[in-house]
Amino acid sequence: MAEPAKLPEQDWEEQQEETLSPWKEGWRKFKKNKIALAGLSIVTFFIILALTSPWIAPQGIDEQNLSIRLQPPSSEFWFGTDDFGRDVFSRVIHGARLSLTVGFLAVVGSAVVGSLLGILAGYYGKWVDTIISRLFDILLAFPSILLAIAVVAILGPSLQNALIAIAIINIPNFGRLIRSRVLSVKEEEYIMAARAVGMKDSRILFSHVLPNSMTPIIVQGSLAVATAILEAAALGFLGLGARAPQPEWGAMLSASRALLVQAPWTLVFPGLAIMLVVLGFNLLGDGLRDAFDPKMKT
Amino acid sequence: MRKEPVLQVEDLRVSFFTDEGEIPAVDGIDFYVREGEVLGIVGESGCGKSVTSLSVMGLIPKPPGKITGGQIKLNGEELTTATEKRMRTIRGNEVAMIFQEPMTSLNPLFTIGNQLMDATLIHKKGNKKQAKQRAVEMLKLVGLPRAEELMNDYPHQLSGGMRQRVMIAMALVCEPKLLIADEPTTALDVTIQAQILKLMKNINAELNTAIMLITHDLGVVAETCERVVVMYAGKIVENGLAVDIFKDPQHPYTKGLIQSVPDMRYKKQRLYSIPGNVPRPGSIKKGCRFAARCDFAFERCMQEDPPLYDTGEGRSTRCFLFDHKEAKEDDNQRTTVTS
């Protein structure tokens, strides 16, 4: 038996109190950041709204009552009514579900595809990298909204196709992010150490490289949800996303833009909802970056 | 008692192919490591030590690296032609490696226990429970107290010395015949260095694991190794028993290395340093690679590349000073007699 050498016991008595995984440590930092917590509350608020919309909205998505057209905000209709006599408040709440779904799904889709491509490009390099990176370059060469319009034009305008379009235009953002992260992670000594104990490439990729490349995905992901919601709204506004009765915020803006002077509440509230949710995700993303960004870590 | 070599390297050549052409990092080296022996490989940075060890592991990044010639035999099995699949079963199982930077050699996202168990389960059959038991055993073996609790700790909670112990535990978990230690103590405090070296010696004695210790630190060599191979610019310039080499270094480079170790007793003297730097691999086309920095260089050193001269007692040296040494000595004797 090797003789156990004396180690500084005292030092780790202190550390022993709490075993902190890097994730928990990040959360601890995040909790201290008030602005980030505000972002998290806004996001949580909208998520709850989206989940419970069928129960908390006073009216259905498309309940028309032409006798109460264009009523200003009142105690009965908090956000007023639109030109079909629909309750704007209810529609904004229902819209939360649509917008968040589009935001999340588009980001999850692009993050999964982008990460996969990015990992392959970064880890294997050579021609794999060349092909994938050029693909990203091509996607990035178009202004994103133009590309989204093109995709929707091919697939046909609908909320689902808008989602797909947004996912596609976001792929290179994630892909390039992960690729660069993988390039630096794969040079880490623990990757060499993992290979030195005889670990397989695929195993190294998924149990060492991917987890260590995760933080930028999460940070970028939360920020990307904000842009995705904006893009969905933009497509909706252009009539390329959600179709008429769907209470998607961008589509609501578009439908009411003729009423700007006559009934501004039909525009202000969906607009405010977009602004708030985007702000929430941006604050959350910034907070996550501060808490998890490896560069800030000592 | 002569034991069988665990590792036999013959005429190994490793080159890196870059935009500037072929750069030979290791240029025809021969050495062996016998069972249960500690071999030191010494040299300055950039002399090919690490490339040699990575070649044995089959971990040379290719491209740009490539083994261009020679053989590496582990327990008689040729490794240079082995498939990647075969190499994976060898790595960690028959030959393991520990690295210079214990601070970065462990994945920061997983617990010590997790990583140790992983290393076990790659090669050994068995369930998680057995793997865990084995991991705890190994942590105790490398002298880490409260091993059970340590299993749930993350690497950043450990000091450098403790992490290096964990790395050693991980390397030994499958009881390899050969342990390659690439500058295992360079990044550690001196006191911790001594502990780690002691641990490695203990392991060598108890488990009979052969160790190939790569270092630039002659102190480390003196403390741990039986035999030493001195490398310079991709070639072996001297090899022999550690005691002999320290007592009577033959190659001017080895002499220089030994003189460059600070000595408390001669404080007033300026510390010797070998002038110049290690030449870039492949930059010297003609003559002895050390000639430009050598105090003893003469005409022939600039023209021809010296072979490795056998200087007796299992030693050899790559220097023309040892060409016809006996003949020269004979001459000297004769002249003294006649005068």
Rg of chain B, Cα atoms, Å: 22 Å
Q: Could you say which overall geometry of chain B the principal axes of the C-alpha atoms support?
A: globular
Mean pLDDT across every amino acid position of chain B: 82
- Greatest interface: A-B, 32 and 49 residues
Summarize the helix and strand pattern of chain B as letters: EEEHEEHEHHHHEHEHEEHHHEEH
Helix content of chain A: over 70%
- Beta content of chain A comes to under 5%
- Provide the CATH topology of the domain at 99-292 in chain A: MetI-like fold
What is this structure, in a nutshell?
The complex is a heterodimer of chains A (298) and B (339). With 298 residues, chain A is mainly α. In chain A, 72% of the residues lie in helices and 0% in strands.
List the helices and strands and how they pair.
The complex is a heterodimer of chains A (298) and B (339).
Chain A (H helix, E strand, L loop, with lengths): L8 H8 L5 H11 L1 H23 L31 H37 L1 H16 L2 H12 L3 H27 L3 H8 L4 H12 L1 H24 L11 H8 L8 H28 L6
Chain B lengths: L4 E14 L2 E14 L3 E5 L6 H9 L7 E10 L2 E2 L5 H7 L4 E4 L13 H12 L4 H14 L5 H4 L9 H13 L5 E5 L7 H18 L2 E6 L2 H7 L2 E6 L2 E7 H6 L4 H8 L39 H5 L5 E4 L2 E3 L7 H14 L1
Parallel strand pairs in B: 3-8, 3-9, 6-7, 7-8
Antiparallel strand pairs in B: 1-2, 1-4, 4-5, 9-10, 10-12, 11-12
Helix pairs in contact in B: 3-4, 3-6, 4-6, 6-7
